[in-house]
Amino acid sequence: MEMITYPLASVILAVGLVMAAAPRLIPELHKLKFGQSIREEGPKSHQVKSGTPTMGGIMIILSIAATCAVICPLTMELRLALLIMLGHFILGFLDDYIKVVKKHNQGLSARQKLLGQLVIALLTAYYAGLPTDLWVPFAGRLDLGMGFYALLLFVLVGTSNAVNLTDGLDGLASGTVIAASLAYMLICLWLGKLELAVFCAAMAGACLGFLKYNRHPAKIFMGDTGSLALGGALAAVGILTHTEILLAVIGIVFVCEAMSVIIQVTSFKTRGKRVFLMSPIHHHFELKGWSETKVVRTFWLAGMVGGLAGVLLFRIG
Question: For 59-103, how does the pLDDT look when each residue is reduced to its tens digit (9 = 90+)?
Fold first, then answer.
């Protein structure tokens, strides 16, 4: 019974914490003038969002951490998941702080951000003491040896950046993270990893509570403070369950967002031509004439399909 009760309680508590914090945090961020700067090269329709409070990821991530601390024991796996998430939270907070408070629009440089992500990944690899096997659908466990640590670096850096890129429309990242975290909650329950299931449930609950204020028209954005940390959290669950391959299926929206940027940059640098009207790909559909809400709902649906496909693949593979 506790296998269901604890995750359910986590969802409820995390939703409640975020919804209790938001009415207090949003006016405070307004007062401090912690508003989002909108890139001039982005879609023109987004300029009206300039000044919307950002750094809402503070209440998402702290609610997840508080929920886990209250609901279940802090086992080694749960502590590691929280440390990975909080490490990315600090990195995202610094990036937002530089952009919002110091008024440097670019925040941390790409090199600085990557260095921070690599440090988190290396510390994880050094202290985790994880088995070096990988679950492969229909093939079982495959021992990667030292190659596992290269995969760990790739998954942590790739997933945190991919979720960060997805956070470009009202409610887009929040909704897709809910789908991915609920899928992983089920997988963790089947694996008997109750504490990680609670972690995933708390993630879903915190994002659900945040979505009330982040859906179109957004009253607050999560910023890199939230998106980098949520990406790190999903990567942590994928690594700790040794289902890194499934992460690409469950997080199909994040994969598409990241790949669209890679394809766009590569094509422009090698051929001088753009493949998409704008990247990440959610902007491409906006410029094709889709409304922001249509793009978001379509991507939410894609995220739910990816989550369901990942769960089914895990069960039959």
Answer: 999 999 999 999 999 999 999 999 999 999 999 999 998 888 776
Position of tokens 């299926």?
Answer: 249
Q: How far is CA 15 from CA 66, 141, 163, in A?
A: 12, 36, 21
pTM: 0.94
Other Cβ atoms within 10 Å of 308 Cβ, number = 16
Query: Mean pLDDT for each 10-residue chunk of the chain (317 residues)?
Result: 83 97 91 68 63 91 97 92 96 90 74 87 76 86 87 92 95 98 97 96 98 94 96 96 95 98 95 94 95 97 98 92
pLDDT tens for each residue of 171-211: 999 999 999 999 999 999 999 999 999 999 999 999 999 99
Q: Is 144 exposed, middle or buried (0-12, 13-18, 19+ CB in 10 A)?
A: middle
**CA–centroid distance for 158 within its chain:** 11
Give the Cα separation of 281 and 289 in Å (integer).
13
Return the sign of the alpha-carbon dihedral for residues 196, 201, 202, 208: positive
Q: Is 152 exposed, middle or buried (0-12, 13-18, 19+ CB in 10 A)?
A: buried
Beta bridge partners of 53: 35
Q: Is the dihedral of CA 262, 268, 271, 276 positive or negative?
A: positive
Residues 6+ apart with CB under 8 A from 55: 29, 34, 93, 96, 100, 221, 222, 223, 225, 226
Asked if residue 15 lies in contact with residue 203, where contact means CB atoms within 8 angstroms, the answer is no
Query: Contact, 90 vs 58, CB < 8 A?
Result: no
Q: Residue 143 forms beta bridges with which residues? A: 133
